[in-house]
Amino acid sequence: MGKTEIILFLVLANAVFLVLIAGVFMFVFKYRKRKIEHGEELKTKEEQHQLQLMNTQLSVQQQTMQYIGREIHDSVAQKLTLASIYTGQMHNRATEPEMSKPLENIINIINDSLAELRQLSHSLTDVRKQHASFAELIANECEVVNNTGKCSATLHILGNPEMGIAAKSSLFRIVQEFMQNSLKYSECSDLKINLEYENDGLKLLLEDNGRGFNLNERKHKGIGLDNMRRRALALNGQFEMESQPGVGTKLKVAVPKENLLSET
Ligand SMILES: Nc1ncnc2c1ncn2[C@@H]1O[C@H](COP(=O)(O)OP(=O)(O)O)[C@@H](O)[C@H]1O
Ligand SMILES: [Mg+2]
Question: Domain 132-264 is in which class?
Answer without folding.
Answer: alpha beta
